[in-house]
Specification:
- The complex is a heterodimer of chains A (about 110) and B (about 120).
- Chain A has no helices and 9 strands.
- Chain A is mainly β and about 110 residues long.
- Chain B starts with a strand and ends with a strand.
- The relative contact order of chain B is 0.30.
- The chains are: A mainly beta (about 110), B mainly beta (about 120).
C-alpha cells in the first residue's frame, strides 16, 4: 500500500495504543489530509477521524488523530473491548491521481 | 438520514461484464462527489473510482482504468459502476461511499453503503 500501517496492535483494557500511517511526499507530505476509518467484521467502514484531527459526532473523545510531515497517527486511550476492529487510514496521492488507503491495522484488546 | 444501498453483485465468469447500482437518499445527491471502494475477501480497502457531483469529472484507480466506468443519474439519485472484462482479482465487496470535501486532498468518505459482493470465477 502507498500508505503503510502496522498490521496489528494490541493493548489491555484501559490502556492506550497508537496506530501510525506512513506516507510520502506525494500524499500526506504534499499536504493531503489523513482520515481514519473503523471497520468491524462483516460491516461497512465508518469514519472515525476526518481531516487529520476532527471527530464526527458520536465518536468518543478517546479517539484522536494527528498529522506530522509525511505521517498520520490515530491514538486510542482507555481501550475498551468494543474497540477491537480493523482501522484504516486514507489520503489522496497526487502521483497516482487518486485516493489511497493504508493496508489496515487489526486492533486486539487483550 | 443518509442511506446508500448497493445492488447488482453476482457471480460472473472472467471476461464478463456487470453493472452495479447505488441508490442514495437523505441528502442532495447531485451536490456531492461519490466513490466506489472495494474490499477483496480478507483484504483491506481499495479505492476504485470517484465522480464529481455533476458527473463531469471521473477518476479511476490504475487497477480498473480502461475497464470500469463510473456514472451517475442525479434525477434518479443513483450511482453506477459498469465493470467490463472482469478478472478474478476483481472479486470483492463493492461499497459506494459519499465523498465529503472541496479539494482532492480533503476528500474523505463520510457515509458508506452496506456493500454488494461481486465474485469473478469460472
Amino acid at each position: 500500500s502507498v500508505l503503510t500501517q502496522p498490521p496489528s496492535v494490541s493493548g489491555a483494557p484501559g490502556q492506550g495504543v497508537t496506530i501510525s500511517c506512513t506516507g510520502s511526499d506525494s500524499n500526506i507530505g504534499a499536504g493531503s489530509d489523513v482520515h481514519w476509518y473503523q471497520q468491524f467484521p462483516g460491516r461497512a467502514p465508518k469514519v472515525l477521524i476526518y481531516k487529520n484531527i476532527n471527530r464526527p459526532s458520536g465518536v468518543p473523545a478517546r479517539f484522536s488523530g494527528s498529522k506530522s510531515d509525511t505521517s498520520g497517527s490515530l491514538a486510542i486511550t482507555g481501550l475498551q473491548a468494543e474497540d477491537e476492529a480493523d482501522y484504516y487510514c486514507q489520503s489522496y496521492d497526487s502521483s497516482l491521481g487518486g485516493w489511497v488507503f493504508g493496508g489496515g491495522t487489526k486492533l486486539t484488546v487483550l | 438520514e443518509v442511506q446508500l444501498l448497493e445492488s447488482g453483485g453476482v457471480l460472473v465468469q472472467p471476461g464478463e461484464s456487470l453493472k452495479l447500482s447505488c441508490a442514495a437518499s437523505g441528502f442532495t445527491f447531485g451536490n456531492f462527489a461519490m466513490s466506489w471502494v472495494r474490499q477483496a475477501p480478507g483484504k483491506g480497502l481499495e479505492w476504485v473510482s470517484q465522480t464529481t457531483g455533476g458527473g463531469g469529472n471521473t477518476y479511476y484507480a490504475d487497477s480498473v482504468k480502461g475497464r470500469f466506468t463510473i456514472s451517475r443519474d442525479n434525477p434518479k439519485n443513483t450511482l453506477y459502476l459498469q465493470m467490463n472484462r472482469l478478472r478474478a482479482e476483481d472479486t470483492a465487496v463493492y461499497y459506494c461511499a459519499k465523498a465529503e470535501g472541496y479539494t482532492y486532498g480533503e476528500y474523505y468518505f463520510d457515509h458508506w453503503g452496506q456493500g454488494t459482493l461481486v465474485t469473478v470465477s469460472s
